[in-house]
Amino acid sequence: MKRYVVRRICTGILTVLIAFALNFALMKMAPGDPITTLMGKDNDSPEMRQALEEKYGLNEPIPVQFTSYLKTALQGDLGNSMIYNRPVSEMISERVGATVLLGLTAAILAALIGTIMGICAARREGRIFDVVSSGTSYVFNSMPNFWLGLMLILVFSSGLGLLPSYGMTDTRASYTGIMYYMDIAKHMVLPVATLTLVLIPQYFRIAKSSVLQVTNEDFVTTLRAVGMSEKKIFNKYIFKNAILPTVTIFGISMAYLITGVTLIEIVFAWPGMGRLVMTAINQRDYPTLMGIYLIMSVSIAVVMLVVDIIYAMLDPRIRYE
Amino acid sequence: MENREFISIEDVAMWYPYKGKDKAKATGKKNWIKAVDGVSLSIKKGEILGIIGESGCGKSTLGRILTRLEKPTKGDCFINGVSTGAMIKKDAKEFHKTVQIVFQNPFDTFTPRDTIGKILMRPLKNYKIGKNDQERYQICLKGLEQGGLRPAEDIMKRFPHELSGGQLQRISIIRSMFLNPQFIIADEPVSMLDVSVRADIINMLIDLSRNQGAAVLFISHDIALTRYISDYIAVMYLGRVVEYGTADDVIKNPQHPYTKALISNCASIDPEEKVQNIAIEGEPPTPLNPGPGCYFEPRCYCACETCRQSYPEKIVMENGHWATCSRINK
Amino acid sequence: MEKMKKICKTIKGDRQLLAGMIGIVILLALVILAPVVASENPHHYGKDILNSLGQNGHLLGTNHMGQDIYSMIIYGVRTSLRVAVISALISGVLGVLIGGVAGFFGGKVDTFVSELINVFMMLPSFFLILLIIALFGNSITNVMVVIGITTWPSNAKLMRAQALSLRQRTFVKSAEAMGETKLQILFKYILPNGIFPVIANTTMGMSNAILTEAGLSFLGLGDPSIISWGQMIYTGKQYITSAWWISAFAGIAIVITVLVFYLLGDGLNHVLNPKHLNRGAN
Amino acid sequence: METILKLDDVNVTYVNKEKEVYAVRNASFSIEKGDSLGVVGESGSGKSTLANALLRLHNEKSTLISGAAEFEGKDLIKMTSKEMNELRWKEISVVFQKAMNALSPVHRIGRQVEDIYHVHEPQASRKEIEERMIYLLKLVNLPERVYRLYPHEMSGGMLQRVAIAISLLHKPKLIIFDEATTALDVVTQGQILQEVVQMEKEMDMTRIMITHDMSVVAASCNKVAVMYAGEFMEIGRVEYIFKNPMHPYTQGLLNSFPSLKGENERLHAIPGFLPDLSRKQEGCIFAPRCPKATEQCFRKKPQASYMEDGRMVSCWLYERGGVKDGE
Amino acid sequence: GCSGSGKGSGGDASSSDGSGGTFIVRSAGDPMSFNPDVAGDDNGYPIAQNMFRRLCALDSSKQNLVPEAAESWEYNEDATKLTFHLRDDLKWSDGEALTSEDVKYTFDTIKANPTYYFSASMAVVDSIEAPDDYTVIFNLNKPDSSLVYFLGWYATFIMPEHVYNNGQAWEENSEATNPTVTCGPFKLEEYNQGESVTLVKNEEFADPAKLDKLIFSIIPDEATAVQALQNGEIDFFENFSASYVTELEADPNIRVEINEYPSPIRMLFNFNNDTLKNQAVRKAIAMAVDRDEVSEKVFNEIQKPEYALYPSYVEWAANTEDTAPEFDIEGAKKVLEDAGFTADADGNYITGLTIDVFEGSGYPDTARLIQATLAEVGIQTEIEVSEYNAWSQKVSVEKDFDICLMGGFMGPDPSALVNRIGTGGGSNYGSYSNTKVDELLAQGASTAEQSERATYYKEAQTILAEELPYINIVSFAGPEASNAGFKNLPYDGEGKWAWADYSHVEKAN
Ligand SMILES: Nc1ncnc2c1ncn2[C@@H]1O[C@H](COP(=O)(O)OP(=O)(O)OP(=O)(O)O)[C@@H](O)[C@H]1O
Ligand SMILES: Nc1ncnc2c1ncn2[C@@H]1O[C@H](COP(=O)(O)OP(=O)(O)OP(=O)(O)O)[C@@H](O)[C@H]1O
Ligand SMILES: [Mg+2]
Ligand SMILES: [Mg+2]
């Protein structure tokens, strides 16, 4: 176990480094730089360009830039955003909450609803419930999440005027206390619904297929032969065996939480990381992009590790080699 | 028949490094799975040597080494005095032509994607047997018919899963025959087959060794069958040969306690012949760092102090029959 | 002949596969027959702008540029299928080769490659695609290549697992014993026998490629010189309340196409599942 | 002796989308209390199908079972599933071939044993169960610690013994071994067989032993039933049948077995292979492979004939000389 | 369509308490810094305009100067000295007075710092004098009558010397992230990154704002912002796509105004390209652009076709007689034929040209329409769309393009043309060069009298109309929409107050 964990950590670190180098290389190779943004529109002063390049060390050789950045990053300092001139870590920490709130809520809801539906469908295989929910899950699985978001806005926000269409809070009202949280909850309804709807199918399918698979395992036949009631077999044995893949999927979707909600954040103007990323790309804000990427890689690596460990704890069969 | 040893296996060993699990830490040193641990045997031309032993004792590993699908950790085998290691280095194709293997599971011996025709033609093409495809096709037809597989043309068109196990196993042997091998290893060739069809395979192997003078190594855990087919039998335990002799000697007059237990436990189909089974204590062993004493000692019903200290010597009896047990003459 | 019959039978036997097959045939027909089926050239910027459904003979209306939405949807199939097929092909070929080599040769090669696969699996791929496309330009070729080279790891992983287990299979051992070379074995035995889960996965990958392309287009990173549903949604977004048909139908087209590939992939998964293919390997 | 199980014309048919597989046909036989019946037959001859049918483990939707199987006077096939559940394990238990998969991989043996025990004895305390199980483990020659292990932590042989031990939890009257020892090596198999025969005597159980290994039957059963393609060819006492097989199929089977100590005679295979079970056959099912088949064999199914030594043979060769015919 | 009657005008809800109310303005992104002089920042500008003062400012037409910190200003005869007279009633929020020292400090620092946006424009300024607390004199090293306009444009806000002058760079100063000392109708209350910037009324200010609160709500996505406006979640949204105009105009709760200023969309030719060097080719291309179609389809007829070489909106400077040629497919073909081009089998005269555009603001659509009409003439083009930064790198830094479409401010004064088409001008991406034009532009810049300047500029345009180094396609007009419950929006203050100045906004009744 220990060796396994160590090895996984090594892989994680390697991934982060490679991700990082890749990202750095891509950004440096790409046309455009943050200077354009810094100089502002309709400004072509070569002196200013040169002065800015010097100021941000962009005229140094790329390996030098890389190592110097890496060095500070290893010390836990992500540097300052070139555009906003604020610590990147601060910018990320301000945003990450919103993303996690959105992504986590949706992931949990989807996992719960999807798994329950999947189990129900598996138990009623071939019946109306199964056919309908499988069909629906296919359709939602095929739906671009941004489009679904737009359609939901069209119906629930502009059509029926029931729910706010953008943002996290009502800027005008600026509520406090319990009302503040109610307000956030209200703003969350549409984006969370969108995300949940597109996430449900994968849980549904994995739950359904693993229940079906486990149901056909030999040990279930044994339990039947023992005279155990179907209900008990399900609750005590099938469930525990079948829930494992869901755990993995949930873990993986946790890891990709930040990337997964990018489009939704843009559709709903949700003040999260996804938008920070898009802005940073457009502005070529190197430190911010690198910082986000680093955080993202690290969190994926960590979550994956945690998932593996949890999985190992749940499933005694796993051996570490 | 030539009297010189045709195949000689000299002190062959196959140790796999043992990965994982915590035991490794306790002892500190590297752990080995000694799948085959110093086996020396010889086979004459036209002779069938049977190898028996319980699951995991290294029978298949030995077979794989002899076909050079794996390189032994130690030792080598010689065909006509030439090292197989050298042979495969010099000309791998030629080596594989000389040594052929028939596997246990006929259902899995052929790629499910190709027709039998294609499968049979491949080695012919590889070895440039026959001038053109047409001639090769004829060779295949002839082979199939000789093996009792009729209508051959129809069988050539079929896919492996459309044939029965017995048919497949026969095709597997026929395919080996195309190359005129001098040494055939049959690794449990009938254990996956129905009783009613396996006789064909056994008879085919016997004919092969008799007619073509090929040496055959017959691996099986079915003792009765092994005795039936073999001239000699070697009994393996945890990677070592513990007893060797002519088939009748070993079966009727077993010397090693393990052989005795094995044979006594082997039920006969004759219901009247109720023998007293010799029980073996303990759980089946693993080949992980066995020794230093006799490997069978922990389960042996007549073990003594000497067995615990060092691996017993080979004790040779009449008729080339030998066993490694310190208690034999006492 | 018989083979064809059998294939037909398996297709008929699996409802999802059947639906997927019918879907894909229709889509392919649309690709070929687009000029016949479409009512006008989708690149024609006509006089009728923002026509609603059925107005002036525009079945699904027009957009602000005067392009016929129905025709655009029809021609959009070409783009989506092209993206799907080419990117999946790139991803499939890379995955199969890399995974196959790793699994078959094993040892150090495998350790190295599987670590590489692990690393690539953990990279946030949509993000990477986004970054590359945003930074390096959004031609459809870029999009296809980038999707292809960022999604191979899952294929490689599948292929590696297949190769690893196939390597132990008797027919591979027996091929080796029959004197076939490593390369022959890899291409004649390992790849053909191990490729089916990859094919199913690749089909699923096609759905994702279509969705990814749509997502990129939605962020304004689509190729402007082609007709793509993602871009229709993107431009239609401006008209979402006044001319909803621009983005709504494009979205439905995406849903249907992606659905077809999902059904196909799932169906293939059932049918090509190695469990159904091999006997005696239980 | 009292009859514990009596089968009367049991048929089991798998109904799939495209075809029906007649896996067991017209099975009729009976077992007395304390008997041990070996069912032999080639792979796919319907042995497991029959075993599962007796415990009603088949998927009810896709399997048709007809006929009557009386267990102590109650018909297993007509029983409600509640009654069936009552019976399962307490009266009839079964040991499957693939012990490796017969237990849930994510629960410890102890947990599973407790759950299984509680099905019929909800009041039993943990300690009681553990004691009972440990007693049984000892009986099958396993150490106590096994109780606390996960299935994957044991070897196949150990698991097989665990499975046997679990099947004995409630001292069932009838126990079915479905190829329970086939996967084991000779030594272990021999040992387990011996233990089983021993236990049987102690506990007064009836046993059905399904296997394709004749020697296993020879060593551990007193009656044997030879099955071919879903039908019983010959049923009778082991010593009679093995000494003097009457049905051509039985003869063929025994001919293809070399003896351990006797003379080395040439082995004979039965040509051909198992017929397609989804097709209804007009005549004797074995006819296409039978060396002694006559034209009649292909036309009409032979009746079961009962011989003097109590055996049943289903073959035209004996139609005349059979006891039944004389009555 | 749906006319978003759901919430009506949310502004009323909070205004019922009788106070000035809250006004919510859509912002496309986060401000880069709260020191508005560091960079030319579109998102930061409106915030700064309401928290800081500058000497003078351009109004929403971006043509007229209005006074801010300075009551008045004047040039000397030869336009080499610019004098400002400051108001004496302006105070920083910490009570200190805003004086000429602050102004001098601000512009000295900008001049000394090449990384600050206005630094390059300060090149003409020799020195700054502050003879007394309320007078500031800019001494120029050459005549430049346009400087005052540029002072009213971007990044010229007066910074408090007593706070900033502590040896720290502006962008590093904590004031740049959290401004406590400001001078304007509003002051900062709260900034939530990615969400909103909240300003509250500065009671101490000399001309107090009517509103209580001014919030900049950050909504990058345009469609979302339109939704929000219709739902009453925001009150003001400027410069959105023309496509929304019809729909918003139909909404009784929303007031839509079209605000025009001199930033036409134009097509620029690269003179380094051998084909495009040929005047006939440029002319043919110019004749193949159907401005009416572009205006109608891409800009919903909000942005009108523009034929003049300088925005005709600036009436005094634009030459509306000598203009680019009209749309004429056959004429274009003839121009090419006359110049010796022959059509190939497919009827193409010229192939292989690329049109570079950046994503957004209708450029790709415009390019597509032009591509289609060019193809009719027999000129085959490829469109390459890049994201803005990459486009900018390609066009402005590497100058690696054939034809590009671009927009951008051509004001506030025609003197800015030097930069765009003058030989060696910083924004002269197409490397156009004509000595006569250079001369005329120089004369225009060094003359203070407007009618005299007009003649120089018009003559320059006559040459440009012949040579066609670029052509304008459509004029610029930004639709701006607001909650109908408010009046005196920035664009209501033409000639009265600065663009993006919200201090005059008040409830309609
Ligand atoms: N590649 C390998 N790596 C590690 N251990 C191996 C490897 N191959 C075989 N072994 C081990 O070597 C031992 C002997 O295996 P082998 O397959 O030769 O046994 P066998 O006698 O053929 O058994 P069976 O009768 O079950 O076929 C076993 O304990 C097995 O686990
Ligand atoms: N679910 C099923 N649907 C259709 N046919 C089936 C099904 N299960 C088994 N069969 C068929 O029924 C026949 C009898 O199968 P069964 O498993 O009873 O044989 P068996 O005698 O136990 O064989 P083995 O010795 O291999 O265990 C076989 O031909 C098999 O293919
Ligand atoms: Mg083996
Ligand atoms: Mg069975």
Automatic annotation (TrEMBL), chain A:
**This protein's superkingdom?**
Bacteria
| Cellular component aspect of the GO annotation | plasma membrane
Q: Which GO terms describe its biological process?
A: transmembrane transport
Q: Which residues form the ABC transmembrane type-1 domain?
A: 96-311
What does the record list as coiled-coil region(s)? none
Question: In the UniProt record, does the keyword Transport occur?
Answer: yes
- Subcellular compartments: Cell membrane
Q: How does it sit in the membrane?
A: Multi-pass membrane protein
One Pfam family of this chain:
BPD_transp_1
The primary location reported for this protein is: membrane
Keyword field: Cell membrane, Membrane, Transmembrane, Transmembrane helix, Transport
Q: Where are the transmembrane segments?
A: 96-119, 146-166, 178-200, 242-270, 290-314
Recorded family membership: Belongs to the binding-protein-dependent transport system permease family.
What is the protein named?
ABC transporter permease
The scientific name of the source species is Sellimonas intestinalis
From TrEMBL, chain B:
InterPro entries listed in its UniProt record = AAA+_ATPase, ABC_transp_ATP-bind, ABC_transporter-like_ATP-bd, ABC_transporter-like_CS, Oligopep_ABC_C, P-loop_NTPase
Name the UniProt key words of this record, in alphabetical order.
ATP-binding, Nucleotide-binding, Transport
Residues annotated as domain ABC transporter: 18-263
User: What Pfam families does UniProt report for this protein, alphabetically?
Assistant: ABC_tran (PF00005), oligo_HPY (PF08352)
User: CDD domains given for it?
Assistant: ABC_NikE_OppD_transporters
Q: Which residues form a coiled coil?
A: none
Q: Its Gene Ontology biological processes?
A: peptide transport; transmembrane transport
Xref: SUPFAM superfamilies: P-loop containing nucleoside triphosphate hydrolases (SSF52540)
Does the UniProt entry include the keyword ATP-binding? yes
Output one GO MF annotation. ATP binding
Domain of life of the organism encoding this protein: Bacteria
Q: Which family does it belong to?
A: Belongs to the ABC transporter superfamily.
* Protein's recorded name: ABC transporter ATP-binding protein
Q: Which organism is it from?
A: Sellimonas intestinalis
From TrEMBL, chain C:
SUPFAM superfamilies from the entry?
Answer: MetI-like
What span is annotated as the signal peptide, if there is one? none
The ABC transmembrane type-1 domain sits at 77-265
Where is this chain primarily localised?
membrane
Query: Where's it found, cell-wise?
Result: Cell membrane
Note the InterPro entries from the entry: BP-dependent_transpt_permease, MetI-like, MetI-like_sf
Record's protein name: ABC transporter permease
- Name the species this protein comes from: Sellimonas intestinalis
Automatic annotation (TrEMBL), chain D:
Chief location category: membrane
What highest taxon heads this organism's lineage? Bacteria
Limits of the ABC transporter domain = 5-254
Q: Which GO terms describe its molecular function?
A: ABC-type nickel transporter activity; ATP binding; ATP hydrolysis activity
Q: Name one GO cellular component term.
A: plasma membrane
What EC number(s) would the UniProt record show?
A: 7.2.2.11
Catalytic activities: Ni(2+)(out) + ATP + H2O = Ni(2+)(in) + ADP + phosphate + H(+)
* Keywords, alphabetical: ATP-binding, Cell membrane, Ion transport, Membrane, Nickel, Nickel transport, Nucleotide-binding, Translocase, Transport
User: Which Gene3D superfamilies does the protein's record reference?
Assistant: P-loop containing nucleotide triphosphate hydrolases
InterPro entries the record matches = AAA+_ATPase, ABC_Ni/Peptide_Import, ABC_transporter-like_ATP-bd, ABC_transporter-like_CS, Oligopep_ABC_C, P-loop_NTPase
Question: What is the uppermost EC class here?
Answer: translocase
One of this protein's Pfam families, by short name?
A: oligo_HPY
Q: How does it sit in the membrane?
A: Peripheral membrane protein
User: From its record, what is one biological process in GO terms?
Assistant: peptide transport
Q: Where in the cell is it found?
A: Cell membrane
Output the PANTHER family linked to this UniProt entry. NICKEL ABC TRANSPORTER, ATP-BINDING PROTEIN, OLIGOPEPTIDE TRANSPORT ATP-BINDING PROTEIN APPD
Family, per the entry?
Belongs to the ABC transporter superfamily.
Q: How does it assemble?
A: The complex is composed of two ATP-binding proteins (NikD and NikE), two transmembrane proteins (NikB and NikC) and a solute-binding protein (NikA).
- Any idea what this protein is called? Nickel import system ATP-binding protein NikD
The species is Sellimonas intestinalis
